[in-house]
Write a structure and sequence with these properties.
This protein is an alpha/beta fold and 334 residues long. The protein has helices spanning 3-8, 12-22, 28-35, 39-51, 116-129, 145-156, 165-175, 227-236, 256-278, 292-301, 315-332, and strands at residues 55-60, 69-74, 80-86, 89-95, 101-108, 135-139, 159-163, 182-187, 190-196, 201-208, 212-215, 221-225, 242-245, 249-253, 283-286, 308-310. Among the domains are: 3-74, Winged helix-like DNA-binding domain superfamily/Winged helix DNA-binding domain (Arc Repressor Mutant, subunit A); 80-174 and 316-332, ATPase, nucleotide binding domain (Nucleotidyltransferase, domain 5, 2-Layer Sandwich), CATH 3.30.420.40. The strands form 4 sheets. It has a 5-stranded mixed β-sheet. Strands 10-9-8-15-16 form a 5-stranded mixed β-sheet, with helices on both faces. A 4-stranded antiparallel β-sheet has the order 12-11-14-13.
């Protein structure tokens, strides 16, 4: 059992269900001991969960006679879906009540457009391979996503949650054992912070990071380099004072390494601000250009560097974190 997940669950029935999911072949007495609930409450919750089809209860005979022991487990077929979008690829997966991944599918989409039909298609594919979901969580920011959520609810009968990739990382960290409150910071061309506590998950858009200025050979201003491109150029190891933009030709930048260090200081300042607001024990940073070297610079500049953790921004992690959000809020907290 992960204590932080248990703290996040605010219903007695949900805590009983999570306790069963975290164990195997539990008795009612063991559930009572783990939850601290009264036996009357445990019996009421177990009966309700059995009727809802979320857990199973079998009686095991005792050698030599006597009252048989109950063996309580979660139903293996029940599942929750998580769907995320990153860089033109949709990732959809289903997880069981224990948080284990059951199935996973990916599909390429047209970047920059809401892939509504692909979302419906992947959802139907998961349903055909297993059972309908108890809940679905979508992790992406597209205009019109509310309409997609409403249609999914009508088609599947499941409650649909809309979250960001940053919130998905926070839920993943929660299930990995990070104590509440959990703070995740997504670092890209903009910075988003997700603070997950016992009551809710608050996402704050900290705004866009300053972009490095790009100049032509005569020193005239021509364009702006995105923060992600800056780090990519520095990682390539062939930066020589010039950077070629496809749409602008050969451009000269002024002291790109110094800009990268300044950017690390900016991110470090964000971690300090976020720490003052949420007071987390751990802060999870992720981003497409958050290399180990850049992360180390942020840690060195930040006054809370010891609490910083580098998280992978892989597509699967976003979908998995979304599914864990759906499981936490749509099943255990329902």
């Amino acid at each position: 059992m992960t204590p932080s997940v248990y703290e996040k669950i605010n219903t007695k029935k949900g805590r009983v269900l999570y306790t069963v999911a975290a164990g195997e072949n539990l008795t009612k007495a063991e559930i009572k001991q783990s939850t601290g609930l009264s036996m009357t409450t445990v019996i009421t919750c177990v009966d309700a969960l059995v009727k809802e089809g979320l857990i199973t209860l079998e009686l095991q005979k005792v050698k030599g006679g006597g009252k048989p022991h109950s063996m309580i487990n979660v139903c293996e077929g029940k599942c929750v879906y998580g769907i995320s979008y990153k860089s033109g690829v949709l990732t959809a997966l289903s997880i069981g009540l224990k948080g284990e991944i059951k199935r996973e599918h990916t599909q390429e989409t047209k970047e920059g457009e809401l892939p509504s039909e692909q979302i419906y298609s992947l959802t139907q594919k998961l349903i055909k391979e297993g059972e309908p979901p108890l809940a679905i969580a979508l992790a992406f920011n597209f205009e019109g996503r509310e309409e997609v959520a409403e249609r999914l609810e009508r088609r599947t009968g499941a409650k649909v949650f809309l979250i960001t990739n940053t919130a998905a990382i926070a839920y993943r960290a929660l299930w990995q054992g990070s104590p509440l409150p959990v703070l995740a910071i997504g670092v890209g061309n903009t910075v988003k912070c997700a603070c997950l506590d016992e009551k809710r998950c608050r996402v704050t858009d900290m705004g866009a990071l300053l972009s490095a200025p790009a100049f032509c050979g005569k020193g005239d201003y021509r364009s702006l380099l995105s923060a992600a491109r800056v780090e990519k150029v520095l990682r390539s190891g062939d930066y020589g004072g010039h950077y070629e933009l496809c749409e602008a030709g050969l451009m000269e930048t002024r002291d790109l390494p110094s800009y990268s260090r300044a950017l690390a200081r900016s991110v470090a300042a964000v971690t300090e601000i976020a720490h003052c607001m949420c007071a987390p024990q751990e802060i999870y940073l992720f981003g497409e250009y958050l290399t180990q070297g850049f992360f180390d610079r942020v840690c060195a500049f930040s006054r809370v560097g010891d609490s910083l953790r580098r998280e992978s921004g892989e597509r699967l992690n976003f979908a998995y974190g979304a599914a864990l959000c759906g499981l936490t809020e749509g099943v255990f907290n329902e």
